[in-house]
Amino acid sequence: MTKQAKRDICRKLKMLNHGRETGNISKTCRYFGISREIFYQWKRAYESSGETALINSKPCPENRSIRVPQPIEEKILHLRKTYHFGAQRIAWYLDRYHSIRVSSGGVQGVLRRHGINRLPQNMKSLAKRNSYQLYEKQVPGHHVQIDVKFLKFIDKGRKPIKRFQYTAIDDATRIRVLKAYKFHNQRSSIDFANLVIRKMPFRIKAIRTDNGHEFQAQFHWHLQDLGIRHIYIKPGTPRLNGKVERSHRIDDQEFYQLLDYKGDVDLEKKMTIWENFYNFQRPHGAHGGKTPYEALREKLSV
Question: Residue 291: CB partners within 8 Å, gap ≥ 6?
């Protein structure tokens, strides 16, 4: 018996038991939001054929002729399990790298059929968020957002390990630079800023950070000496650095939950691979499926 069948039986038995215990069918139907006709239909089916009669049946037989072919289905499952891509990103990736056209709905159907249409993070109901107007700079390097992500690992000796991922993302192109540090201080911040300046393929005009201790006077004046404007966001407004915050969520979904920590050297190597994949190969939703470096080329050609 499938999980869905068990859920159908459990849900309907709960309603039938509620009606029997209260003795008030109308009240039960109002409570669960069903009609009396449906309630009695389920009751008769249960009394005549038992629990199996409570399983929802498909409205019509599945048409296998319109199913996604098996080889393509395997590619979809591989991208889901390996990178935790969503349906739209899988469709972009197949079109881009395999010249395979599958709609996002077709991809979603494959994921649903194999029971992996929801990722672990999506199982929990998300708190209602305020909606804000998002703005995007059009000139590469005009604004680069920097933030720190706290990492926790367990080494081979079961000892907890703390590391700090510094992340820089360009507002216009979404090109990113990543590096993990052992310490969370201004020295690490200055070293990372120098790395970002070397790796970003354009001149940086301004860097935006929060008000953390790692971005205070020494870091601030270091950027000023380099001719780069340092902008602090208002306290309590992480949305003003929303692009780097959102990229950290992508790291959790597509990188860290697939990572087996084996030491700092291994982490640095895998983080470099992930950074290159993000910048050069991963279809980005903000660019309609183009990669950050493709977005850069488009902006430079205008």
Answer: 279, 280, 281, 282, 283, 284
